[in-house]
Design goal:
Blueprint (H helix, E strand, L loop, with lengths): L2 H15 L5 H28 L4 E2 L8 H17 L2 H7 L8 E2 L1 H25 L8 H14 L1
Parallel strand pairs: 1-2
Helix pairs in contact: 2-5, 2-6, 3-5, 4-5, 5-6
């Protein structure tokens, strides 16, 4: 990740949950986004197929109430941080054998942003005193997301 992008994400985590992250955390964060977006698209692909479509629409994505609320929180943070364009660059598009509609493509940065807010807040739920999450905290948060998404 370019230095400018890294600085914005570091600021994002400070604003979202008073966390100090470093470059190794940003690598974990990138892996987290790739995995969670992939998992969302696995479900979205099945939903689109079940509805007789070969294009994934936004309604196919399993966006829960909680994720939707985190997406709204991200939108407020995004006004100051402008990280959505960086998220767009970071997001890996999983090979699905299905196309994404333009609306689905356009929604991806907001979904990734919502997942990012949820990730940051999950650290504080696990340990309200954590400032700089280490490997153990990252592993715990990853296990929680694996259970839920």
């Amino acid at each position: 990740m370019p230095v400018m992008g890294a600085a914005r994400f570091e600021r994002f985590f400070r604003m979202a949950a008073s966390l100090d992250v470093d470059k190794s955390d940003l690598k974990r964060y990138d892996e987290f986004l790739d995995r969670e977006i992939h998992d969302l698209f696995v479900v979205a692909k099945a939903t689109a197929k079940a509805n007789g479509r070969d294009v994934i629409e936004p309604s196919d994505l399993p966006v829960t109430k909680g994720l939707q609320e985190r997406m709204h929180e991200f939108a407020k943070l995004e006004e100051d941080l402008e990280v959505a364009p960086l998220l767009e660059q970071l997001l890996a598009r999983p090979p699905l054998g299905m196309a994404l509609s333009e609306d689905t493509e356009a929604r991806l940065p907001a979904i990734a942003g919502g997942l990012s807010v949820a990730l940051a807040q999950a650290f504080k739920i696990i340990d309200p005193r954590v400032k700089n999450p280490g490997s153990a905290e990252w592993d715990q948060v990853f296990r929680i997301f694996e259970l839920l998404l």
